Amino acid sequence: MCLYIPLASLRHWIVDTQSPVTQSIVILDFGSQYTQLIARRIREFNVFSAVLPCTASIAEIQAYAPIGIILSGGPSSVYDADAPDADPGILKLGLPVLGICYGLQFIVHHLGGKVISAEKREYGHAEVMIEDTTSPLFAGFPATLQVWMSHGDEALELPPGFHRTAITSNALAGIANPERNICAVQFHPEVHHTPLGRDLLRNFVFGICGALGDWTPAHFIEATVAGIREKVGKGHVLCALSGGVDSSVAAVLVHRAIGDQLTCVFVNNGVLRKNEFAQVTQNLRDKLGLNLVPVDSSERFLDKLAGVTDPETKRKIIGREFIAVFDDEAAKIAQQSGGVDWLVQGTLYPDVIESSSVRGPSQTIKSHHNVGGLPDHMKMKLIEPLRDLFKDEVRRIGRDLQMPEDILGRQPFPGPGLAVRILGEVTAERVAILQEADEIVVSEIKAAGLYSKIWQSFAVLLPVRSVGVMGDQRTYANTCAIRAVHSEDGMTADWVPLPYEVLKRMSSRIVNEVRGINRVVYDITSKPPGTIEWE
């Protein structure tokens, strides 16, 4: 599992629900697009990892009880005036350090070596020759490795006490200082293009850092439940429940900790899928045994969204209205329970990453209703037990909690619902059109046996009208886009080449059964450069 330092602007809301960690690997992020892969690889070893911005203080790093530190790659040059930097004191903590790409150059630069712009840059596949066969980082490795390079700088002079451990035909590829327990590589072991990359990280985590590998879903559940129970005490908790995987797992975790002190509120925001309000209400009560209060606020949300076309404004409006509804419900529940001080949300790590620049040099992609939309005057304190996890990890937690597979297997659905799948203004009429089209897409995906094999599949209503012919008459109606993607955690995604027969049935049914749509297109954009959702 990986924990991430919360957004500074949200710090006074967030409740730390985990018990103290006995050991971790801290990853300092210098802006690499691969940093999250490093964290994922380490979690695959059942080792706790914490990704912190490179600007994290020594005290923040030590708070995670690290047994080792990894310095990520990054797009900058260490000699640039605005290069991302870290406290050089991290190299004096006596902890094992592994530098990757920019991390290697950071080590060389700060310990007295010299980094220059390389005469010949290295991008893509490369062959590395191991020079130091005694290096524990390369234990069990062959003499040559196939790796993935992505750098335009190179270390020209090494700091005192360092020696080369690996080279390519063009440049240095690895260095080490055994006395200081510092090593580094110029290539990226975290990507699948480096076949032995996982073995290299395993050598560092276990062979050099001495990790125990005991951080498991069961451990996470035990620590999280204990942390929630301690923080909440005898207080009453309100859960913002959507019926999706994230909020459902969060609710079950909190329910395990405090039982009847939890009340779940499921809000119809007017932009849910067809029949979802009734179906989810029944499932959450019958299958999870939760104390559920369904609230139909569809008119309230649609009134607020009237005339709004900007995606970020939509998200923030929905976020504010969610909190306003929960405040109203909390007031009602408070009359019965004596007060509500806590709000549970199913926020995930990708929501946080995309909502704000929390990783030093990285950029905001888009705000999420449960991150960017939260107001400063929110009355309740937040409990976000899944905030630092990816979707696949959340599903594993849910299975350890013995939750029904039909709930855990649901495809992700955005917090702002169909509002971010309706480009342009959101109206009751446009919602109804998209609900019908989306229902056809999902039903055909299920009929083809593809639902559990695809990360997400859905319909999008475009603000584009086109001319068509139906029944020998001219039509001028809306365009619908179909989107289906494969992903592991929502951070990246590839479009799915759906079978032509499936696409044909979807298109035929949509234009024949959904009044208001006369054209269907298929989105074949990956993430990046696009996002999974259209807004």
Q: How does this structure look, described?
A:
The chain has 535 residues and is an alpha/beta fold. It folds into three domains: 23-208, Rossmann fold (3-Layer(aba) Sandwich), CATH 3.40.50; 217-408, Rossmann fold, CATH 3.40.50; 421-522, 2-Layer Sandwich (GMP Synthetase, Chain A, domain 3), CATH 3.30.300. Helix content is 31%, strand content 24%. It is built from 14 helices and 19 strands. The chain has helices at 35-43, 58-62, 102-110, 197-208, 217-232, 245-258, 276-288, 298-305, 311-337, 349-355, 391-400, 405-408, 428-447, 500-513, and strands at residues 2-4, 24-29, 49-53, 66-71, 97-100, 114-130, 144-157, 163-167, 172-177, 182-185, 237-241, 262-268, 292-296, 342-344, 381-383, 456-470, 473-486, 494-495, 517-522. The protein has a ten-stranded mixed β-sheet, with helices on both faces. Strands 13-12-11-14-15 form a five-stranded parallel β-sheet, sandwiched between helices. A hairpin with a 2-residue loop joins β16 and β17. α6 (245-258) crosses α11 (391-400). The longest helix has 27 residues, at 311-337. The relative contact order is 0.10. Residues 1-20 and 356-374 have low confidence and may be disordered.
Question: Helices, strands, pairings?
Answer:
Layout: E1 2-4, E2 24-29, H1 35-43, E3 49-53, H2 58-62, E4 66-71, E5 97-100, H3 102-110, E6 114-130, E7 144-157, E8 163-167, E9 172-177, E10 182-185, H4 197-208, H5 217-232, E11 237-241, H6 245-258, E12 262-268, H7 276-288, E13 292-296, H8 298-305, H9 311-337, E14 342-344, H10 349-355, E15 381-383, H11 391-400, H12 405-408, H13 428-447, E16 456-470, E17 473-486, E18 494-495, H14 500-513, E19 517-522
Parallel strand pairs: 1-3, 2-3, 2-4, 4-5, 5-10, 11-12, 11-14, 12-13, 14-15, 17-19
Antiparallel strand pairs: 6-7, 6-8, 8-9, 9-10, 16-17, 17-18
Helix pairs in contact: 5-6, 5-11, 6-11, 8-9, 13-14
